Description:
heterodimer; A: alpha+beta; Ubiquitin-like (UB roll); Fumarate Reductase Iron-sulfur Protein, Chain B, domain 2; 2 domains; 5-stranded mixed β-sheet; 10 helices; 16% strand; B: mainly alpha; 3 helical TM bundles of succinate and fumarate reductases; elongated; binds iron/sulfur cluster; binds FE2/S2 (inorganic) cluster
Amino acid sequence: MPTMSALNVSVWRGAADGRFETFEVPHSTNQTVLDVVTYIQRLLDSTLSYRFACRVGMCGSCAMTVNGRPRWTCRTHVTKVAPDLRLEIAPLKNLPVIKDLTVDMSDFFTKWQRAKGRFAPTKTRSDPVEKIIPDSQARQAADAGIECINCAVCYAACDVVTWNPDYLGPAALNRAWTLQNDTRDGDQRQRLRAVAGDAGCHACHTHQSCQEHCPKNLNPTASIAGLKAAAFRAALTGKL
Amino acid sequence: MSGTWAYIAQRTSAMIMAPLVILHLVVIVYAVRSGLTAEAILGRTQGSLFWGLAYGLFVLAAAVHAATGVRVVISEVTRWRGRSLNLAVSAFGLVLLVLGGRAVAAVVL
Ligand code: SF4
Ligand code: SF4
Ligand code: FES
């Protein structure tokens, strides 16, 4: 790849009380933000900590704050986000920084569990396979949110998570909504209980920052609206 | 769970208030444009079941809506949550209800 010019890259170093450190990295065509971070770690400072695995937008481990916005770095092209060749790369917001670009994801995943974001089977392997009608309303609602890669970009983009650290957040609630629409799942009443309330769907302001930033173009806001309506109905009919 | 009921109260009160706000604005514009005196206004409202119900409902919805709204704002801006906050905002809603109720009584009774 021909080198065209140099990028000016500020990278967060240390934990929450850290600071930005500047590096100069050669710019090349089709370079991703993850390529830039990897270049720094391999050739300029091997003590830089960051995460990645698949490099193709599947594993959800490479999210960082790039020029102020949360993004998946392996599929973010430098030219798209830094036309002036200046990059500021920081850890994701709303999660405690461990070191440099790595954050502690425990809260994020614990909240998936709190939201009962786990399939509860109702059948065993000896039962016949359940027929799923692909164009049923429920299946389409589930399909619309199913491609989440757990990258926490939406979680970092959500102001309500910042204001209320107990808030389950867009990803966990989106996951809960896909399961509420899965006809094979047997835990829907308990799950609706788990996601209703002040730390759950009712805390959402519907300002759609999650949807705007989700690299998979999912719409957690719509899923949360579905949960709000379901909780509303369940409460009025005494089923919550 | 209490969060779900607070949410239901806030949304329902908003739905009730929306048409009543419009009615209230129409009443103001009508009264000002036709130059009604205070006596003429009271003449229309006193003893009127319609105005008593309309403004009574408005005051009730506004009190519920303000209390549930303040509850959300406080819980997001501060760390104050739970029972004590619920009690405090209920008291606030009650004050609004009493003040508004007195105003409605003054023009209707
Ligand atoms: S729409 Fe709701 S979940 Fe999404 S960013 Fe806004 S408050 Fe957070
Ligand atoms: S909903 Fe989108 S942004 Fe949020 S974790 Fe899933 S893939 Fe990432
Ligand atoms: S490295 Fe797997 S999504 Fe970016």
